[in-house]
Write a structure and sequence with these properties.
CATH topology: Metal Binding Protein, Guanine Nucleotide Exchange Factor, Chain A
Number of helices: 0
Strand order of the largest sheet: 1-4-5-9-8-7-6
Distance between the termini: 35 Å
Structural class: mainly beta
CATH superfamily: Domain of unknown function (DUF427)
Number of domains: 1
Strand content: over 45%
Shape: globular
Oligomer: single chain
Order of helices and strands: EEEEEEEEEE
Number of strands: 10
């Protein structure tokens, strides 16, 4: 486990926007309680509480990844209207200390879904 620092900063802040996530024309998530993670030089990632996600459209995938700063990520695929987006959603279910604020939240691949913030 690595701790964030000046060379690899991580911050998580409440997102004040109304966030929606759509796939295949269906709303997958709709929340006013999102969090945004800023990590090093990466693009900000919006995390949505599971309670605000249509979990019935997600299937747990066998794919996992590991981040030395955040921990192990579990992945989900989305299926809606005959379309599937493999490994389009991830979650740090038991995150390291730097990512504790996003425990119980899901992130969506912006290349596979439409994320709206207003």
């Amino acid at each position: 486990m690595k701790a964030p620092g000046t060379e690899h900063p991580i911050s998580v802040t409440p997102n004040q926007a109304h966030v929606t996530v759509k796939f295949a024309g269906k709303t997958i998530a709709d929340t006013r309680h999102a969090m945004t993670m800023h990590e090093a030089d990466y693009a900000p990632i919006v995390y949505v509480p599971r309670d605000d996600v249509a979990m019935t459209l997600l299937q747990r995938a066998p794919h996992t990844t590991h981040c030395p700063y955040k921990g192990d990520a579990s992945y989900f695929s989305i299926s809606a209207d005959g379309q599937t987006a493999e490994n389009a959603v991830w979650s740090y279910e038991h995150p390291y200390p730097a990512a504790v604020p996003i425990a119980g939240y899901l992130a969506f691949s912006p290349n596979q879904v439409e994320i709206g913030e207003r």
